[in-house]
């Protein structure tokens, strides 16, 4: 049967877990971005991002059950996100999306969303 959601079409939860694992392994040694994240452990941040993306693409609504409405711009307000931070974030995310080896149409859909969302999150333009 044809998958009902993009979440299912790309392979469901394991695909999103892999994506966010690769992304956060990049964040973990990024000198610009790592200091913005909780010092001790990136595990909880990894879980929040994974659940958010699963929900966004039509998977289970666990993110909102745990965290409420995403309100992502508001949740990023405590962090200074300029063009340099955005571009560093996108570099790690691009590497993570590429690592999935998705078919071109799915790759483009996922990447276009992430790129647009990252531009929208900038709150400290130069
Ligand atoms: C949380 C940085 C863009 C989704 C966070 C946190 C930081 C951060 C420092 C707190 C970590 C934590 O959860 O403890 C950035 C930077 C971005 C960016 C520098 C550059 C543009 C994005 C984008 C998305 C996103 C584009 C979505 C597509 C999230 C989510 C959380 C989060 C879901 C957890 C929110 C919560 O439930 O508290 N981000 N972020 N971020 N970010 Fe970003």
Automatic annotation (TrEMBL):
It comes from the Bacteria. Heme binds at residue 119. The keyword Nucleotidyltransferase does not apply. One of its GO terms (molecular function) is oxygen carrier activity. SUPFAM superfamilies: Globin-like (SSF46458). Gene3D superfamilies: Globins. Pfam families: Bac_globin. The keyword Nucleotide-binding does not apply. Keywords: Heme, Iron, Metal-binding, Transport. Belongs to the truncated hemoglobin family. Group II subfamily. This is Hemoglobin. It comes from Micromonospora pattaloongensis.
């Amino acid at each position: 049967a044809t998958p009902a959601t993009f979440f299912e079409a790309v392979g469901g939860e394991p695909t999103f877990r892999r994506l966010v694992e690769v992304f956060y392994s990049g964040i973990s040694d990024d000198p610009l971005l790592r200091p913005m994240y909780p010092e001790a452990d990136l595990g909880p941040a990894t879980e929040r991002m994974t659940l958010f993306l699963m929900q966004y693409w039509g998977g289970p609504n666990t993110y909102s059950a745990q965290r409420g409405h995403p309100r992502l711009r508001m949740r990023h307000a405590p962090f200074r996100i300029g063009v340099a931070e955005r571009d560093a974030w996108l570099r790690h995310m691009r590497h993570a999306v590429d690592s999935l080896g998705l078919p071109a149409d799915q790759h483009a859909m996922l990447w276009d969303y992430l790129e647009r969302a990252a531009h929208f999150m900038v709150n400290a333009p130069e």
